[in-house]
Design brief:
Blueprint lengths: L7 E3 L5 E3 L8 E6 L8 H12 L5 E6 L11 H12 L18 H9 L14 E4 L5 E5 L9 H8 L1
Parallel strand pairs: 3-4
Antiparallel strand pairs: 1-2, 3-5, 5-6
Protein name: Glutathione peroxidase
GO molecular function: peroxidase activity
Keywords: Oxidoreductase, Peroxidase
Amino acid sequence: MKTIYDFSVNKPNGEQISLQDFKGKPLIIVNTASKCGLTPQFKGLQNLYDAYKEQGLEILGFPCDQFNNQEFDNIDETTSFCQLNYGVSFPMFAKIDVNGEHTDPLFTFLKDQKKGFIFKNIKWNFTKFLVDRNGRVVKRYPPTTDPSKMAKDVLQLLT
């Protein structure tokens, strides 16, 4: 059976990294946007990261421009915006597609593992996936879920 460790993703500079680098750590994988009404969730995600990174939690952010063009064209603008406005220190990756013909393979896998409430496709920015230490997708959260509401589930994976 496949796990997220079977995938590689691109850093903002285009360098490829294997998700094997995160093996043994609980993960939150999220599609993000810098110019969205939900963008303030970066603060909540960063708060989770600050609270639990010493216990192993990693958060992986994937900018996406598929929902009303709410992401900067330049990835450097995206990463600077996230750091300056929300103090984001968790890893951010290259801009990707999460739906459609050019869906990133990681997000195809995530959606296959945990479908949404009604649809398989991601319906908006800040859809979040929780992954356990073994690389299995254990939960999918809709875009409107405040990251603070994920803390209980994260704690379960950390113990």
